[in-house]
Specification:
This protein has 558 residues and is an alpha+beta fold. It contains six helices and 28 strands. The chain is elongated and about 135 Å long.
């Protein structure tokens, strides 16, 4: 029995030394101190895992910062291109201002000038990275009647966003304020893209309406106190001023309090669209005239004395309240659905127009010009899609042309568009960049807006000496705007690069700390392994010797 107990002791010593040697070999091969449970202190393992979490999230934040730098670099490249174009436009204006040439000689100069304007518009709309505009902030807002949600897009239908709030008729905001939104009433985005303005009911079923503002960041609704009607129309100009057509009067609304102040326009036709650009209100008056009112000069100019002029053999209904119609930002173009599936457009500068047929079976809804005045958007209710037509007035002949564009957003059985608006700017043009190493820290960058509309160049031309003189002023102002936006881009880019440098240092420190806690000291562990190997060999030798002694005893007994 004594011999038996001794072999068990020898075998136990061998097993322990063998297991320790295998653990040591595993730690050396993996360089992980915690490769097997129980190795190291439990607190150290928890600390190491926390460091690993910070490193992993930090790596993703680094990617976000690098993407931000890429976005800023691309935006600056686009802005630089716009700067070059504006400088060329300034040269053309200076040439056209030469008193030794006549208007006939200025015409070809203006052809290039207008082509450069078109390129600025194209760059602002089509230069994208990560599916986001780099120097444009087009807003295409539409209400989905299936899910009672507001969707917003870029002008090409990309970069879709959804307001994560049900705008059903009985919904309340987080502060229990009645939202009172209805897509049949007018709505538009603010110039900074952070607020939705709309005509809302005071309480459900009250039949009383006020101006309301939905905060895109907080989801809280603010209501004004001045009374309006359900068919009143809203407009936000390039200076972020909010106007409303109510009861034959255009009111200026304070965007903070939503309190109204009457303007001098008191003869606007009710239930009609209007626009405001550079302090000029473009509207249909009660006599069916298209009128411009200069707010600063307090003067009126009649653009079209009789909007009942027949265009393309179609009856005239431009100014009739309730008929789907639109006025462009500068007031140059007006459009309506003159018959089911037929869109009519008129140029108020030339008193010429044209029509386009998209199909009698189609029902056009929500006509809206884009702010750069080269596209007319609409909802095709029959095919459940948002589409546009392009248009232009040919210089020299004053011929208005209109062509079918394309579908920018296609609806489905689970997404049906009730209405659209193209005012203000896109909430998605506020681009967030994650900066934090292990917490949520966001740097928000409001994209540059270098659309012709925002640069103040919609009506700019050099076809006369007077126009060329004004163009020099307008282009200089536009260059100042671009320079300011490039300064913002430079500041944001430099900040992101500093953040990236700091971030890389942080990650290096975290990796070093994690290595001290988790990585094996190879030199020390190798010494331990050598010691365990000696012990293991001694244990094997003892087991072998004991087995040999046992066999000798058995031979003696035999």
């Amino acid at each position: 029995m004594v011999a038996l107990s001794r072999i068990f002791n020898i075998h136990t010593d061998y097993t322990v030394s063998k297991n320790r040697m295998e653990d040591s070999m595993a730690r050396i091969s993996s360089s992980d101190r915690f490769i097997t449970p129980g190795n190291g202190l439990g607190g150290n393992l928890a600390f190491s895992e926390k460091l690993r979490y910070r490193i992993q999230t930090g790596e993703q934040s680094r990617n976000s910062i690098q993407n931000g730098i890429t976005y800023i670099d691309q935006a600056d490249f686009s802005a630089d291109t716009v700067t070059s174009i504006l400088q060329r436009m300034s040269e053309l204006a200076a040439v056209s201002l030469n008193p030794t040439i006549v208007d006939a000689e200025r015409a070809p100069i203006d052809v290039e000038y207008q082509a450069l304007k078109d390129e600025v518009s194209r760059i602002s709309r089509d230069n994208l990275i990560f599916d986001k505009q780099t120097v444009g902030r087009d807003a295409l807002l539409s209400f989905d009647s299936v899910n009672n949600r507001l969707h917003f897009y870029q002008a090409n239908g990309g970069d879709e966003g959804v307001i994560k709030k049900d705008f059903d008729i009985d919904e309340l905001d987080p502060d229990q304020n009645y939202i009172g939104f209805d897509s049949s009433r007018d709505y538009t985005m603010s110039r900074d893209g952070r607020s939705l303005f709309y005509i809302g009911e005071t309480t459900q079923g009250s039949g009383a309406f006020v101006a309301k503002k939905y905060n895109m960041d907080t989801g809280v609704v603010q209501a004004g106190t001045d009374a309006f009607t359900a068919t009143d129309k809203m407009f936000v100009d390039e200076e972020a001023n909010l106007y409303i057509n109510s009861g034959n009067t255009v009111y200026d609304l304070d965007t903070s309090s939503l309190a109204r102040t009457a303007t001098a326009v008191v003869d606007i036709a009710t239930d009609t669209q209007f626009s405001v650009y550079k302090g000029i209100i473009n509207y249909f008056d009660t006599a069916d005239q298209l009128v411009q009112y200069d707010i600063n000069a307090a003067t009126s100019t009649t653009l079209i004395a009789d909007t009942t002029t027949v265009v393309g053999g179609q009856p005239a209904v431009f100014a009739t309240g309730g008929v789907d119609h639109a006025i462009s930002s500068s007031g140059r173009y007006i459009a309506d659905e003159v018959a089911p599936g037929t869109i009519r457009l008129m140029d108020s500068d030339t008193d010429t127009g044209t029509v386009i047929n998209i199909g009698a079976a189609n029902t056009v809804d929500g006509l809206h010009f884009n702010e750069d005045e080269d596209r007319l958007y609409y909802v095709n209710q029959a095919s459940n899609e948002i589409s546009y037509v392009t248009f232009d007035t040919e210089r020299g002949t004053n011929t208005v042309t209109m062509s079918l564009g394309s579908t920018v957003v296609q609806g489905t059985t689970q997404l049906r568009f009730d209405s659209i608006d193209l005012g203000g700017t896109n909430f998605n043009s506020i681009v967030p960049f994650g900066l934090a190493e292990d917490t949520t820290t966001i740097l928000e960058y409001e994209s540059a807006d270098l659309r012709l509309y925002n640069l103040g160049l919609l009506e700019s031309s050099v076809e006369t000496a007077a126009n060329a003189d004004q163009a020099l002023v307008d282009v200089a102002d536009a260059l100042n705007t671009v320079n300011f936006e490039r300064a913002k881009l430079g500041a944001t880019g430099r900040r992101l690069r500093h953040v990236l440098d700091s971030h890389m240092n942080y990650l290096a420190d975290m990796r070093d700390a994690e290595s001290h806690v988790r990585d094996v000291d190879i030199a020390k562990e190798s010494g331990t392994l050598a010691q365990l190997q000696v012990r293991n060999q001694a244990a094997i030798a003892m087991v072998t010797q004991f087995n040999a002694s046992k066999e000798a005893v058995l031979r003696l007994l035999n």
